[in-house]
Design goal:
Length: about 325
């Protein structure tokens, strides 16, 4: 397959590019490098600097590449994804996440590209009453990030319906860890996600960490999430793209592990390796109490299930953070 990966220099995009190349596919990356890194782009992938919210940038990549050979699949990773930031900057989230997808789809229709793989999120479910989310559950996001992704999901469905295209929508749960090569991993100026924050606290890059709320209606009062290793997640994209090309059918699946861990349990895993000091802080805006994936559909449709456990994510993130000098 020839695959365009928009956002392929970022965390999940770069890992997906590595897995696509390992599976023998041809990869073109477009990224604006706002949060991604040029050195994260696999050396066998062709790179274009471009912004998904700029139609000229998109058109240039599609024109140059499709003149040689059309894309079989386009993958979208170029999103803003920090829940508390989205609560403060909803317009930026709608612009980047929704308008970017609209332009991508417009250009795909102009070049008659038929398959799209889209990174969505467990945040579309909102404050799930059941706790275990199934794909057919009602969606009611409780923050602008989740709302922007849900709006994009719906747009993708309608566009695919109108233009005889197919989609693979993945709803990610909490992604962590780094590629076994340690060439790529989660690198950001300011880290906000639980596992790297706990590791930074353990490495004394920060004095302590905050646990945001211990009065939720959960077993120990802290929020429960379903953690998934980025390499497992990335490999699911290879399977999703191959499914679209082979079956010419759309699909929407959760990518998670069926298992939930509380914030305190995650911190305890990190404490096996590092001395982490934490304080209990007030709840953070936009946080649902419990989000766990049912991954039955991913197993049935794609033959996918996660290989790695929470401890593997902690170990590989720690190894990556040490490699990049504890940043
Ligand atoms: N948390 C802390 N302290 C921290 C950081 C996080 O207590 O310093 C808590 C949060 O309050 C939350 C949990 O750890 O309860 C996980 O928080 P993250 O920031 O790591 O991740 P989120 O659950 O907010 O969001 C992530 C992705 C979203 C995705 C969501 C789905 O960023 O894109 O998982 O579950 F939608």
């Amino acid at each position: 397959m020839k695959v365009l990966v928009i956002g392929g220099a970022g965390y999940i995009g770069s890992h997906t590019v590595y897995e696509l190349i390992r599976a023998g596919h041809e990869v073109v990356v477009m990224d604006n490098l706002s949060t991604g890194y040029k050195e994260f782009v696999h050396k066998n992938a062709k790179f274009y600097l471009g912004d998904i919210t700029n139609k000229e940038d998109l058109t240039r990549v599609f024109k140059e590449e499709c003149d040689i050979k059309p894309f079989d699949v386009v993958m979208h990773f170029a999103a803003k994804l920090i829940v508390p930031e989205s609560v403060k900057q909803p317009l930026e989230y709608y612009h980047n996440n929704v308008e970017g997808v609209r332009l991508m789809l417009e250009v795909m229709t102009e070049f008659h590209i038929k398959n799209v793989v889209f990174s969505s999120t467990a945040a579309v479910y909102g404050d799930s009453k059941k706790g275990i989310c199934e794909e057919d559950d009602p969606c009611d996001p409780i923050n602008p990030y989740g709302a922007s992704k849900y709006a994009s999901e719906n747009m993708i469905k309608w566009v695919c319906n109108a233009y005889d295209m197919h989609y693979c929508i993945f709803r990610y749960f909490n992604v962590a860890g780094a590629d076994a090569s340690l060439e790529i991993g989660l690198k950001k100026d300011v880290l906000t996600h639980l596992i790297p924050v706990a590791i930074q606290a353990g490495l004394k890059i920060r004095d302590h960490m905050d646990i945001f709320g211990d009065d939720y209606d959960t077993k120990d009062g802290t929020c429960i999430r379903d953690y998934i290793h980025v390499s497992d997640l990335a490999y699911a994209h290879v399977l999703g793209a191959e499914y679209l090309v082979k079956n010419k059918k759309s699909l929407l699946v959760n990518l998670g592990s069926n298992e939930g861990y509380s914030v305190k349990e995650v911190v305890d895993v990190v404490r096996k390796y590092l001395p982490v000091d934490y304080r209990i802080a007030p709840r953070r805006d936009g946080d649902p109490a419990k989000l766990i994936a049912s991954n039955k559909k991913a197993r049935e449709l794609l033959g996918w299930s996660p290989k790695y456990k929470l401890e593997d994510m902690v170990k590989s993130d720690l190894a990556f953070r040490k490699k990049i000098n504890n940043k």
